[in-house]
Design goal:
Layout (H helix, E strand, L loop, with lengths): L51 H32 L4 H27 L1 H4 L2 H21 L3
Helix pairs in contact: 1-2, 2-4
Length: about 140
């Protein structure tokens, strides 16, 4: 097949029988609704409802399961410290600090997974992780006495 149009970038060459000016590559709109707002229709098969409440409910359930797991880890840590001859009151304090620390870190992780664009900011995640890490460090130091 032979090319009958001249390229738009080369004005010095023209094939015989080609139009004098190349056609405009962009179509002209003459519709009177060009400034009207665009109506977006949902994609077939996509959910039409907002899932943020559902995501928060699932995240809350996951967080509660994590707290139960962390509670059992706390009990195992306290038992481990008592076996190592740490005073039971110090071991209990260290266990609760570890529970609080892991609870705050897991809350930050669950919030980041549920809605990263909303909760994965320094103002939300930063204090949760900071308090969690401080409690974990304190648990390690209290568990040494």
């Amino acid at each position: 097949m032979q090319n009958t149009q001249a390229p738009a970038t080369d004005p010095g060459f023209k094939l015989p029988g080609a139009p004098a000016t190349p056609p405009d590559p962009l179509p002209k709109t003459t519709d009177r609704n060009t400034n009207a707002p665009v109506e977006v229709t949902p994609v077939a098969g996509a959910p039409a409802t907002d899932t943020s409440a559902r995501d928060m409910a699932i995240g809350s359930a996951v967080f509660l399961v994590l707290l139960v797991v962390v509670f059992f880890v706390r009990n195992a840590y306290v038992h481990h410290l008592v076996v190592k001859r740490v005073a039971p009151s110090s071991a209990g304090s260290a266990g609760w600090l570890m529970f609080v620390g892991l609870g705050f870190v897991s809350a930050a992780a669950v919030l980041a997974i549920v809605n990263a664009s909303k909760f994965l900011t320094f103002a939300v995640t930063g204090p949760l992780v900071l308090v969690g890490l401080a409690a974990l460090v304190a648990a390690l130091f209290i568990g040494r006495r």
